Hints:
With 260 residues, this protein is mostly beta strands.
Amino acid sequence: ERLGGVVQHLTSMGRLGLGLGITTGAAGVAPTDPIIAGLVGWFRAHTTGLGNNVDVDVWLDESSSGNHLSQVLTARPKHFTNVLNGYSVIRFDGSDDSLENVLGVTNLSGSAGLTFFAVVKKAVAAGNLLNVVSGINTGGTLFYELRTNTGSTAWQMIAGTGGSPSASAITPITTWKVVAGRFDTVADRLKCMVNNVFATEGVDTSAITIDNICIGARASAVHSLWIDADVAEVLIYNTALSDLDVTTNTQYLMSKYGLV
């Protein structure tokens, strides 16, 4: 029932993101929109239309793929207004909050590479392997995750197939960061980038078909790795963006949210 008006709501707000391919600007000027090519998931807290301290049961995908996220149970994150540079955030409590794609993911397959971006701040520098964004297969055993490392002292990108994680040493994790994770199927590499600082690459030779997207936890049969964090914006691509494109998107997000 909650998802019944998703398409109508999205259309009425006129935010499909098509034709917004402003990827570069004048020298020294940050782009005003993200790269659109390959964008299959675009989630912005400030366009939900919700009030302060309100439960989020649907987070609409503003790309053209319609990968809307929802939570039909009682464990919903909350929307808070005017938190980061005048923009809203979605707050996950680290206990049982998550939003996921329950209708089947569209236009996203790990076999073609992928890139995640999240504007995020963890509540406390504690915990173990907590997820911001995950893409997972139907069986719930194979996945790509943008998450914290053991002890929650840094961010990392990992594949759940035994691949070597790519961890970032950018600290503290409890301040606002633009965190990006990439899986490159051509180079068989995982990489994590925080505020345009690139971490050492990890090796992964697998290619996972993704059936579900989840923000706030790992969306396996038994959900786990719940994160305690504020999230302002998430972008998901069905390709491994180049270093230049990662930098372009990071500049867009850092400028927008005042992280300069």
